[in-house]
Specification:
Distance between the termini: 42 Å
Helix content: 25-40%
Strand content: 25-35%
Radius of gyration: 17 Å
Largest sheet: 7 strands, mixed
């Protein structure tokens, strides 16, 4: 069953994540979406600033998956394959989309989109999950890429938003009814530099090895020089 999206669009907000959290606390239903044309305090993972000028897509959606915290982490991969599918609908031939663990979508090796998950637990289960997306369309920051640079024609923000929501609804329903296996397979088919050398920077150390796989929890599998498999739950990833 597809999600009945209810989109609220604002000219400017500090953060779509913060606005939708307020709505969630007030009892808003799953499928509530907050979009802002500009964010003044947009953020990515670890609280990093997400530069948010006019001309790109910034939105957060409210989900109520009622799942375990481990399963909730899979939704980042659901979002990534949905974003990739929407981009595939508009991308001109000759350009390559790849998915960078854990939460980025790249085009031609440059970052085009990022995903942010924030959740609230109730009785040990994820009752509220806020999924944020930032997609460069017309105004990418320096050294990144916007969809309009590589598309078959102009890509208006609102129609592209609706394409993303449509794809996400389909993949989310698949995930809810059939599990993570096929989503994981789709993600791995597009994984950026899988099988190649990678450096992962953690809070307390740096790891190096070969990016081999992600498991059913979305954990990255790193094979080091001693041929040991190391589980990486989170970190900043860099490719040689």
């Amino acid at each position: 069953m597809s999600i009945a999206w209810q989109v609220q669009t604002f000219a400017q907000l500090p953060s779509t994540q913060d606005r939708i959290r307020e709505l969630a606390e007030a009892g808003a239903p799953e499928g509530t979406v907050v979009q802002s044309l500009v964010q003044t305090q947009g953020r990515g993972r670890h609280g990093n600033e997400w530069i948010s000028p006019m001309g790109n897509l910034y939105m957060s959606m409210l989900l109520r998956p009622g799942c375990s915290p481990d399963q909730a982490g899979q939704i980042s991969f659901v979002a990534a394959v949905a974003l990739s599918a929407a981009m595939g609908d508009v991308l001109a031939p000759g350009h390559a989309k790849t998915l960078k663990w854990p939460n980025d979508v790249l085009i031609d090796g440059k970052k085009c989109a990022g995903i942010l998950l924030e959740s609230e637990l109730k009785s040990g289960m994820v009752d509220t999950l806020i999924l944020g997306m930032g997609v460069n369309i017309m105004a990418p920051p320096e050294d990144r890429i916007g969809i309009n640079q590589v598309s078959k024609g102009p890509v208006p923000i609102h129609p592209f938003r609706d394409m993303v929501l449509s794809h996400f609804s389909a993949f989310y329903e698949h995930w809810r009814t059939k599990g993570f296996a096929e989503i994981r397979a789709l993600w791995l088919q597009q994984a950026h530099n899988i099988g190649k050398a990678v450096t992962v920077k953690l809070q307390d150390r740096t790891l190096e090895g070969i990016f081999q796989d992600i498991d059913e929890k979305g954990i990255l599998k790193l094979c080091n020089a001693q041929h040991e498999i190391i589980d990486v739950l989170s970190g900043d990833i860099y490719f040689s």
